[in-house]
Amino acid sequence: MKVALAADHAGFPLKEAAREYLQEKGFAVEDFGTYSDDPVDYPDLAVAAARAVQRGECALGILFCGTGIGVAIAANKLRGIRAACCTDCYSAACAREHNDANILTLGARVIGSGLAMKIIAVFLQTSFAGGRHRGRLAKIKALEEEGSYNSANKFKL
Ligand code: RB5
Prior knowledge:
Layout: E1 2-7, H1 12-24, E2 28-31, H2 42-54, E3 60-65, H3 69-75, E4 83-85, H4 89-97, E5 103-107, H5 113-125, H6 133-144
Parallel strand pairs: 1-2, 1-3, 3-5, 4-5
Helix pairs in contact: 1-5, 2-3, 4-5
Bound molecules: D-ribose.
């Protein structure tokens, strides 16, 4: 599985740690930058990596900024991208199981490296559960197609 990575200057040190961690675990990694702590604009980096996920060149992506929020907002503007900002392992598991999130975002000014690597491990090891969640994801997909959202379709649990 190939994983796309990207960070702004605030997320840069955590991206570096994540790249080493993933390579140690045998994952193929594509690093879209940034490559130093010189200030950059997080949407530029987030979109570069998210496009690789959108095009299917990378199976999943992990984005880093100060809070994890800016890169999530930017990535979620792209059709087919479901980016989840997580600060705990339970949310990371549910982001995959329930939401079929294809991008994890992490805040380097919010969580430490140890917790970040655990969250990454859980995110990458967890699969989409399918079932009742499919209909909900179909509604999210419908939001990407102007006018095709139908709230009358109900899915239990
Ligand atoms: C950069 O200072 C900071 O705004 C950015 O890394 C991120 O936290 C934005 O959401």
